[in-house]
């Protein structure tokens, strides 16, 4: 047997009993069977306390626990799918659409853990941002829209389903070709929606829009990249029109579960940080305003171009 495998088995034999001993007795059964709704507070408390106490140790311990439970290592589950990253990155279009559609995998164990994931404020916030975008379209009816990192485009699909005659065209900028194929299938050839496969970092801004929207991209960026991309998008906004950027809040109560259970890492930010980044990008006079969806987890930086 390869020496590296032997070493891993030894480490596993030592650490796994340590991990299970750190699980409160009441949680052993929950991890095996999966939690009911009444168990959710204890699960969250476990993740938050252990992660706050020693993030690195808890993440190492949880990787051993992950192996024991399909809900954390199977693509059929929400947490497992996210941690496996089948398209090479967390938060891909399939995961987002699972959250949008209240997906739960098969098998009681996975179904229970997926129900837990779907009930969390972070998942609710993802669904709320879909509604947030649709409301911007409905209330403003902007004629020309740029949707940056459009993912599954279910928000666009649902908007046109409600407003089939809306005088709006949407340009979707998306890096992942699989996401584009998925979205095009969902939209069934809607001619008012056009897709461009492009990396936002190399994309050259062109044209002007009455609404520029990006809800699931900027919280993957460092501050420097955030400012660089925001500065590029500012050039696409018509005078008097709006640019709206989504970013998860630094008060996200599910950060521990996302980072440990799902291996989904974001750059969480406060309203003050978002406003400061807008200033750094040259938008101090764009009336920066930070709002949020009802769960208070997904923040939205609104910038209005001066006339």
The strand count comes to: 7
- 3D shape: globular
Order of helices and strands: HHHHHHHHEHEHEEHEHHEE
Mean pLDDT: 92
Summarize the amount of helix as a percent range: 40-55%
How much β-strand is present in the residues?
A: 5-15%
What gyration radius follows from the Cα positions, in whole Å? 21 Å
Contiguous uncertain segments of 5+ residues: 8-21
The neighbouring-strand order within the major sheet is 3-2-1-4-5-7-6
Separation, N- and C-terminal Cα atoms? 71 Å
Largest sheet: 7 strands, mixed
Topology record:
Blueprint: H1 3-22, H2 25-33, H3 40-53, H4 55-68, H5 78-84, H6 93-100, H7 108-119, H8 121-140, E1 144-148, H9 154-162, E2 169-174, H10 177-187, E3 193-197, E4 209-214, H11 223-234, E5 237-248, H12 255-261, H13 271-280, E6 289-292, E7 298-304
Parallel strand pairs: 1-2, 1-4, 2-3, 4-5
Antiparallel strand pairs: 5-7, 6-7
Helix pairs in contact: 1-4, 3-4, 3-12, 8-9
């Amino acid at each position: 047997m390869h020496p590296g495998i032997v070493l891993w088995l030894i480490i596993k034999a030592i650490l796994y009993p340590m991990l299970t001993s750190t699980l409160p007795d009441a949680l052993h059964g929950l991890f095996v069977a999966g939690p009911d709704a009444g168990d959710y507070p204890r699960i969250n408390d476990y993740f938050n306390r252990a992660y706050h106490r020693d993030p690195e140790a808890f993440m190492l311990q949880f990787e051993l626990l992950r192996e024991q439970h399909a809900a954390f290592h199977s693509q059929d589950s929400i947490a497992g799918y996210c941690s496996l990253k089948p398209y090479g990155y967390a938060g891909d279009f399939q995961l987002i659409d699972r959250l949008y559609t209240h997906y739960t995998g098969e098998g009681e164990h996975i179904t229970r853990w997926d129900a837990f994931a779907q009930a969390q404020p972070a998942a609710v916030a993802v669904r709320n941002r879909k509604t947030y975008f649709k409301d911007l379209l409905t209330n403003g009816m902007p004629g020309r829209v740029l949707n940056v990192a459009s993912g599954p485009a279910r928000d666009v699909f649902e908007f046109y389903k409600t407003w089939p005659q809306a005088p709006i065209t949407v340009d979707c900028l998306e890096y992942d070709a699989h996401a584009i194929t998925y979205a095009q299938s969902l939209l069934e050839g809607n001619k008012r929606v056009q897709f461009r496969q492009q990396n936002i970092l190399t994309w050259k801004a062109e044209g002007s829009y009455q609404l520029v929207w990006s809800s699931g991209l900027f919280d993957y960026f460092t501050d420097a990249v955030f400012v660089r991309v925001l500065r590029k998008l500012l050039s696409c906004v018509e005078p008097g029109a709006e640019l709206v950027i989504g970013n998860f809040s630094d008060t996200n109560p599910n950060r521990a579960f996302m980072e440990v259970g799902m291996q989904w890492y974001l750059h969480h930010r406060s309203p003050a940080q978002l406003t400061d980044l807008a200033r750094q990008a040259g938008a101090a006079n764009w009336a920066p305003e930070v709002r949020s969806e009802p769960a208070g987890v997904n923040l939205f930086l609104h910038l209005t171009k001066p006339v």
